[in-house]
Design a protein that fits this description.
Strands 7-9-10-11-12-13 form a six-stranded parallel beta sheet. Mean pLDDT is 91; it is low at 1-7, 99-107 and 249-256. With 373 residues, the chain is an alpha/beta fold. The chain has one domain: Alpha-Beta Barrel (TIM Barrel). α1 (28-38) runs antiparallel to α2 (44-65), α2 (44-65) crosses α4 and α6 (165-185) packs parallel to α9. The chain is globular. The protein contains twelve helices and 13 strands.
Length: 373
């Protein structure tokens, strides 16, 4: 392993040596309760009480496994992004004719559109965070929200709301700045921005589709970076903000392929972020060479070497070898380990059992304890 600095390899702050992306498989009880609520058989209040009980159970499980950061598994959401975005002021959710196209499958039909001026005022996920915070105890409560880029990338912007692109991005950054402060005020010290747009900007096939939408991938990359930096600027010093970059995760399938090289410099040397969760569980993510753009000694790189798509456990020696490879580009002290994505980016979840999910997370903890003694 490469020489690392003398400071302890155990981390006291987020992201942690053994970490997780956020979403967890919805339990049978949650799935049933959501169906009952949709059918009008139980009230919103009854559903929330069931969610509370199930979230408490999975938070206890995360603690028992040895994770430092706990999440609510996104149990109150149907999607990793739309549920948050459609509760921003000026944004509406709606059903569409077709879903998001993945390899071999398609999601349910849903989308968001910007119909008015953007703002962050009374957002229901603040209460969701407060509940998680109240049961986290001495553990760190981790909140996940979609990156600002996702509203532009996945949303339709009505001309009546914004005819000027600069005004839209300015308001978007300001809206997120308010969101970050509101979560901080609710007690949040570990916030993650989930962003699939960067993976699209790494893929030649997807870049063609972006151009077909009349957008320029290079301009988009610069606009997204500027917006994220404006949104995260001036945040409190004791708040850690990470970003998760993913190539799609729905029922164990994916959308895009391509290494991080095309966006590596923008991400690692240009974004005001404390850590990156990077998908590295398959050769679709390319090699570790793009990590040479990590110049800041305080930037943490969380290697997503464990797959959340399938139940089989990885060989620990293979994982340690890959961490060793990554440490040729980034000091071991700046590396962490996690699954490449959540286990249920949408409520349907990936194709593995709850037992396999916990085994995967335990695997992450045990390997991290071994590597960062």
């Amino acid at each position: 392993m490469m020489e690392h600095s003398n400071q302890s390899l155990k981390r006291k702050e987020a992201p942690f040596r053994a970490d997780q992306v956020g979403s967890l498989l919805r339990t049978d009880r949650i799935k049933e309760a959501r169906l009952q609520k949709a059918a009008g058989e139980i009230t919103a209040e009854q559903l929330r009480l069931i969610e509370n009980e199930e979230i408490k159970r999975i938070v206890d499980k995360q603690k028992e496994i040895g994770l430092e950061a706990v999440t609510d598994g996104e149990f109150r959401r149907a999607w990793w992004h739309f549920d948050f975005l459609e509760h921003l002021d000026g944004v509406e959710g709606y059903d569409t004719e077709s879903g998001i196209q993945f390899h071999q499958t398609q999601t349910k039909s849903h989308a968001v559109k910007v119909t008015g001026k953007l703002n962050f005022t009374n957002h229901p996920m603040l209460e969701d965070y407060k509940f998680l915070h109240s049961i986290a105890g001495s553990h760190t409560a981790k909140m996940t929200i979609p990156s600002p880029s996702m509203l532009h990338f996945r949303g339709e912007i009505e001309k009546s709301a914004y005819s000027d692109q600069d005004e839209f991005f300015h308001d978007l950054a300001l809206t997120y700045k308010k969101a970050i402060q509101a979560f901080y005020d609710a007690g949040c010290r570990y916030l993650q921005l989930d962003d699939t747009s960067w993976a699209y900007l790494c893929s030649d096939e997807q870049k063609e589709q972006i151009r077909a939408r009349g957008l320029n991938p290079d301009e988009l990359s610069a606009l997204y970076a500027r917006t994220i930096n404006e949104a995260t600027s001036g945040r409190p010093n004791d708040m850690k903000i990470t970003m998760h970059i993913c190539r799609g995760n729905f029922r164990s399938t994916w959308i895009s392929s391509g290494g991080y090289e095309p966006v590596a410099e923008t991400l690692f040397d240009g974004l005001n972020i404390d850590g990156f969760f990077l998908e590295y569980d398959s050769d679709r993510a390319g090699g570790f060479e793009p990590l040479r753009f990590v110049k800041r000694p305080d930037l943490q790189i969380v290697l997503g070497l464990i797959t959340s798509k399938f139940g089989e456990l990885e060989n620990p020696d293979d994982i340690k070898r890959r961490i060793d490879e990554a440490s040729r580009y980034v000091d071991l002290n700046q590396l962490c380990l996690s699954p490449q994505c959540g286990f249920a980016s949408t409520e349907e979840g990936n194709l593995l059992t709850e037992e396999q999910q916990w085994a995967k997370l335990r695997h992450v903890v045990e390997m991290a304890q071994d590597v960062w003694k």
